[in-house]
Amino acid sequence: MVGANPKFQAIGRAMRSALSAVPRRVLRWHWISLAALIVPLSFVLVQCGKAPSAGMLAANTDGAKSRAAKSKAETFDERFPGPQFADRFPTASESLPQVQHQVALTPPRTVRTEPVRVASLTPTLTLSRTEREEQTTLVSMKSSAFPYFGNNPRSDEPFLNITKGDRKGHRSYGGKVYWQDETYNDSRVLVHVPETFDVRKPGVIVVFFHGNGATLERDVRDRQLVPQQITDSGVNAVLLAPQMAVNAADSSAGKFWQAGGLKRFIDESAGHLARLYGDPKSAQAFANMPIVIVGYSGGFLPTAWSLEVGGLPNRVRGVFLLDAVYGELDKFASWIEKNRTSFFVSSYTRYTKRHDLELMQMLRDKGITVTESMDGPLRPGSVVFVQTPDGVTHRDYVTQAWTEHPVKDVLVKMAATPALTRIASGAPYANR
Q1: Rounded CA gap, 56 and 44, in Å?
Q2: Using an 8 Å Cβ cutoff, are 348 and 372 in contact?
Q3: N or C end of the chain: which has fewer CB within 10 A?
Q4: 10-residue stretch averages of pLDDT, the chain, 432 residues long
Q5: 167 beta partners
């Protein structure tokens, strides 16, 4: 090398001499190991040297704006998730033809002897040892909300008002067409009997009307945990939850629009509850048991019509609305005024606040006392409105309102007042 430093030349000769003494096989593995270390490091250095692109900066800016907007206000899609989202579609099992027999949905659990709260004068009792297990089942019932081929009472015209070939459908209030064979053809009812339920004791039937965009399995059972809340309350209660419009933004009441619709539903359910309970002779007790109606969101419509024309005004011992006062205020006010020994609870977010305030004023104008706190037990004639703070979402309202698991909380407060539950499950309603 011309002009090279003599010292470096000497070092180079020494290195070549040393390497010549190393076996060729060892030398080859030496270079492979050195390359394995250097090549990945070179890629890291290249990536670190790249400047962020304008697209990346814009995406980060847009993401920050989106997060800020979401923190200020809950979107309409969060309140009413539309069926276009993948997580709102029924599962494969839900898309199968409707069952005509009972299908167990939860694994059996062995009943143990232990104190439990019940809806009675006595706060606790000890159940005798039994092999009966908790049951949660889907049952097809003729008196359920759908199929429905009658009129829409709002217009007094046929509910199925759209025809396309052999298909019939309904144009909803929002303008969207839902087809009868997809949305209004599921006659199933979610029936739940807790393992601790005792038909010999005063009990209550909870009728749950779900909201828009829901199915019984995916939403009422698994997401909103309604059967679990009833079991966890310890109250001597069973559940009936009819399938309303399947996975649709529609609150139609179906057969619950009809005079006597609730009565026919309860009458038919008695036999199913008795079989699920394991004692066919208990059907008469279920047929005469008092009722608590729980309506969530779009469930306000079947709730209101059940109170107005359902045929069981004296059997309904309480009504609980979960962010559900979207209309039918006159029906709710009329029922409250006529049933001063039953309770009424409405918890609400800012989305239904205007209607709840209007209903409160209607009741006060009638001389009915209204309270705005859920502290303490419910009493005969209690009328309670509870506003929940911002940050509580409409979608999660059945599991998180003013408290976690509000259905459970209302049942516990009801059971804490003997006057509300001092009703035997037989004779008092035998002739009504």
Answers
A1: 19
A2: no
A3: N
A4: 52 54 48 46 42 43 47 45 37 38 42 37 37 84 98 94 95 91 97 96 97 97 97 97 96 97 98 95 96 97 98 95 97 97 96 96 96 89 94 95 96 81 38 32
A5: 164
Q: What is the pLDDT of residue 404?
A: 96
Q: Identify the DSSP state of 278.
A: T
C-beta separation of 250 from 214 below 8 A: no
Cβ-proximal residues to 285 (8 Å cutoff; 6+ apart), any chain: 199, 203, 425, 426
Alpha carbons 121 and 419: distance in angstroms, whole number: 8
Interhelix angle 329-338/300-309, rounded to 10 degrees, is 50
The three-state secondary structure class of 206 is strand
| Nearest residue to 16 (alpha-carbon basis) of 27, 4, 5, 3 | 27
Measuring CA to CA, which residue among 218, 345, 236, 334 is closest to residue 282?
A: 236
Per-residue H/E/C for 305-319: HHHHHCCCCCCEEEE
Rounded to an integer, what is the distance from CA 57 to the centroid of its chain?
39
The answer to whether 420 touches 343, Cβ cutoff 8 Å, is yes
Nearest to 258 by CA among 342, 146, 141, 169: 146
Strand partners, 240: 191, 207
Q: At 73, list the tokens.
A: 């206000």
- Scanning the structure block, which residue is given the tokens 């009565």? 263
d(CA 294, CA 299): 8
Structure tokens at 261: 């619709």
Q: State how far the alpha carbon of 357 is from the alpha carbons of 13, 326, 385, 386, 396, in Å.
A: 96, 12, 9, 11, 22
Strand arrangement, sheet containing 167-171:
162-164, 167-171, 177-179
Q: Which of 78, 428, 393 is nearest to 287 (CA)?
A: 428
Angle at CA 208, nearest 5°, toward 205 and 214? 155
- In 10 A of CB 34, how many CB atoms? 10
* Torsion sign over Cα 405, 282, 110, 127: positive
Q: Position 27: which residue type?
A: L
Rounded distance, CA 347 to CA 53, Å? 49
The residue type of 335 is W
Domains and CATH numbers, the chain: 89-148+186-427 (3.40.50.1820), 149-183 (no CATH)
The DSSP line for 138-181 is EEE-TTSS-S--SEETTTTEES--EEETTEEEEE-TTS-EEEHH
Tokens in use for 408? 């459970």
State the pTM of this model: 0.71
